[in-house]
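INTERNAL TRANSFER SHEET
From: sequence group
To: structure group
Subject: GNAT family N-acetyltransferase

Please process the attached sequence and return the structure record in the designated field. Keep the field labels unchanged so the import script can parse them.
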Amino acid sequence: MTLTDYLPAYRLRLRTDRLELRLPDLDDLVALADEAAAGVHGPDFMPFLVPWTECEPVERGRRTLLHQMGVIAGITPERWMLPLVVLHDGKVIGMQEVGATDFKATREAHTGSWLGLAHHGQGFGTEMRAAVLEFVFTGLGADFALSASFEGNGPSEGVSRKLGYKADGIDHKVLNGVRRQDNRWRLTRADWEANRKHEVAIEGLDAEVLASLGLDGAEA
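Return from structure group:
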């Protein structure tokens, strides 16, 4: 038996012109922790609801590694999150999450991501989100994809608008005792197809992977 026999989602590979996305092995997790330790965002804006980056570099890396391990351990057909590492030229540069609850019924997935600071401003954020959008719409048969970004997070909002998302209302969150506006974004299948610019290859999406995400082959 191999890892993929026990956790079929490890067979998945998403490939774009420049990037590969996959579930992380232990070496990938260490590389991801190193990226987190080196910095994920500037000091003047906290983009995350849980301020996990507000600590010393080694602790930031440790939190990253342990969190991703826990997310992988929590994958079930009814509720799943795939914390995919993003590789460029064979090097881990960040992570792209995609997940859903009761996807078989809702046909709705949500995403989140971050990149190491050294890799900002190169179009990777758009390309890696496009990869998981192709996965959920074409691979899994989604009807909608959701995202959110705090007011003032221009790069994240820019990615959403570029890929065809529409504004979907706001929420208010409290971060370190301060109210923050969280802008919701929704992408329909029609808008995805109208704004689809990146070619994405989906590898390893077989019947066992679909079953692990709550689907069978006829439903995707």
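Handover comment: The chain has one domain: 3-212. The longest strand covers residues 91-101.
Transfer complete.
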